[in-house]
Amino acid sequence: MRLDKYLKVSRIIKRRTVAKEVADKGRIKLNGILAKSSSDVKFDDVLTITFGNKILEVRVLDMKDSTKKEDADKMYEILSETRVNA
């Protein structure tokens, strides 16, 4: 599944266009390597996402083409969430 679609379906990022922008600006790493919005996400991958002053690291647990709001957080596991003072 494409990275931008996974981020939208899992509701880590609410809109696919925003997920694409974030990835294309170099703010997402997939298993420690800079990722593009078209990068392929697989089960057990680790995503590191930088949002402004927050760094979120998650592990992919499930792949679905669509999901309900209450089930979206079951698609990933938060490994760490760090605030960075700028």
TrEMBL record:
Highest taxon in the source lineage:
Bacteria
Q: Which Pfam families match?
A: S4 (PF01479)
Assembly and oligomerization: Associates with stalled 50S ribosomal subunits. Binds to RqcH, 23S rRNA and the P-site tRNA. Does not require RqcH for association with 50S subunits.
Family listed: Belongs to the RqcP family.
Residue ranges constituting the RNA-binding S4 domain according to the UniProt record:
1-61
Species of origin: Pseudolactococcus piscium
GO MF terms, alphabetically ordered = ribosomal large subunit binding; rRNA binding; tRNA binding
Q: State the UniProt keywords alphabetically.
A: Protein biosynthesis, RNA-binding, rRNA-binding, tRNA-binding
Query: What is this protein for, i.e. what is its function?
Result: Key component of the ribosome quality control system (RQC), a ribosome-associated complex that mediates the extraction of incompletely synthesized nascent chains from stalled ribosomes and their subsequent degradation. RqcH recruits Ala-charged tRNA, and with RqcP directs the elongation of stalled nascent chains on 50S ribosomal subunits, leading to non-templated C-terminal alanine extensions (Ala tail). The Ala tail promotes nascent chain degradation. RqcP is associated with the translocation-like movement of the peptidyl-tRNA from the A-site into the P-site.
Q: Does the keyword Phosphoprotein apply?
A: no
Protein's UniProt name: RQC P-site tRNA stabilizing factor
Gene Ontology biological-process entries: rescue of stalled ribosome
InterPro entries hit by this protein: RqcP, S4_RNA-bd, S4_RNA-bd_sf
The residues forming a coiled coil are none
